Amino acid sequence: MAEFDALAVIKSIGNSTTTPRDLDDDEDVKLVLMVLAGSVAARIREQGFVGRTVCIYVRGKSLISFSRQTKLEKSTCLESEIFKAAFELFQKHYRWTEPIRSLGLSVTDFSHDDAPIQFDLFDDYQKQAEQVALERAVDDLRRRFGSYCVRRASLLKDPKLTGFDPKQDHTIHPVGYF
Predict the structure, then answer these.
(1) Residue 178 counted as domain residue
(2) Could you tell me if residue 105 is inside a domain?
(3) CB 103, CB 17: distance < 8 Å
């Protein structure tokens, strides 16, 4: 029997949410995207992947929606890099003609996290490796003590808006194998 390759089956990892109230400004969107980016990044690391394409999905109050995507310079599994790309996409493409009702974020274009990479002379790979190790430690703490044991302080601004865990609270449909 051939060895199973998760990359051949898993094409994207993402989460979306209908917010408990309409989002009225960039600050609200930033908070929700931060929660979604944390969940997506944790699931990417759990699979042993890094992703290169970040996608957002936005639905307004009138239920008109759009999606946009961007390709990163290098693959990542870091929450901060996924969030930054998603928020930049949002700011570039949304003009606040109406409040937002639903947001989604996903990452595609995966490779294994141990795949060889081309180093850039000016990137700080030691700092990036430390950040990945830190986020993996936070993943371990959350697995052991629950999702809310470690949180970003910025998420405490509006607990009603950010008080959800997309990874645990929402149904994640398993991949079918035939």
Answers:
(1) no
(2) yes
(3) yes
Q: What are phi and psi of 86, to 5 degrees?
A: -65, -45
User: Binning pLDDT at 50, 70 and 90, where does residue 154 land?
Assistant: confident
Place of tokens 């908070």: 31
List C-alpha distances in Å: 59 to 21, 27, 117.
Answer: 13, 17, 36
Q: Is the pLDDT of residue 139 over 70?
A: yes
Buried b (16+ CB within 10 A) or exposed e, 53-72: bbbbbbbbeeeeeeeebeeb
pLDDT tens-digit map of 85-96? 999 999 999 999
Nearest Cα to 45, choosing from 98, 110, 1, 119?
110
The number of domains in the chain is: 1
Is 41 a residue whose pLDDT tops 50?
A: yes
Tens digit of pLDDT for each residue in 107-118?
999 988 776 666
Tell me the CATH number at 134: 3.30.1490.100
Tokens of 61: 């109050």
| Strand intervals (E) in the chain | 12-23, 49-60, 65-76, 100-112
| pLDDT for the residue 42 | 93
Structural domain for 91, as ranges: 9-113+121-152
- Residues 48, 58: contact at Cβ < 8 Å? no
